[in-house]
Amino acid sequence: IDVSFLASYCTIDEEEARARVDAVILNVESEGHHVYKCIERGMFASARIHQHPDYALVTQRFVEDEFKLLELGCCFGTDARKMIFDGLQQHKLTVSDLHDFYWSLGEQILFQDDLKSVKSVFLDFSVPWEDLGLEFQEGFKAQFDVITAMAVLHVLAAEQCRTFLQNAYLCLKPNNSTLLGYCAGATQASDWGVTPTKGLPGRIEAPRFLHSKESLEALLVSVGFIDIMVSAAPRQGL
What we know:
This protein is α/β, with parallel strands linked by helices. It has one domain: Rossmann fold (3-Layer(aba) Sandwich), CATH 3.40.50.150. The protein has 9 helices and 7 strands, in the order ααααβαβαβαβαβββα. The strands form 2 sheets. Strands 3-2-1-4-5 form a 5-stranded parallel beta sheet, covered by helices on one side. Helix 6 links the parallel strand 2 (93-97) and strand 3. Helix 2 runs antiparallel to helix 6 (101-110). The longest helix has 17 residues, at 14-30. The chain is globular. The model has no long low-confidence stretch (mean pLDDT 92). It comes from Cryptomonas curvata. One of its GO terms (molecular function) is transferase activity. This is Methyltransferase domain-containing protein. InterPro entries: Meroterpenoid_MTases (IPR051654), SAM-dependent_MTases_sf (IPR029063).
């Protein structure tokens, strides 16, 4: 497990960092929440957003006065803290996930800090826009310059994925805005596994959907995105 970022951010030694990672995994398991592979393997100790080829372009915009960024699928908050570490002011960042369990563990155990000015909203972003409520719609429509969604789409069913991207599109500002992300995919688009309900009432288990490069491009076009760039690469070690 690479704990170098966690140790550096928290100014602790790597032994303490590993102990925090182990404590988080134990908490997730003991509370009965879904243990994703990235959690099981302790991958959340490392920030990954900076590995995206367009991350440097996003960081250049952090200095803009009215800049706003929405992180979807924030989990324990590792990428959020990486962006803050790289210069993003807290008040410009909003984080979101299905519920606050993972984010709270990040604050209480993993990082043991308090991001006082970071805004948060916890809800199912893969339901239709009208079901998200008037308060959300008024506060989030056309508000963000950048939306990130790292390792999210491949845990959704096909229709959830479409709705998720439609909602992201509506949250982006109409001009000079960007959706940035990555996900697992397949050479041929297909169902796999089951979408976890993560304990949310009414959330139906359904086959997850792995997009191909071509199917994801077509979906983004159908939602309304332009200047689309989707790249595909084989996973290392498979």
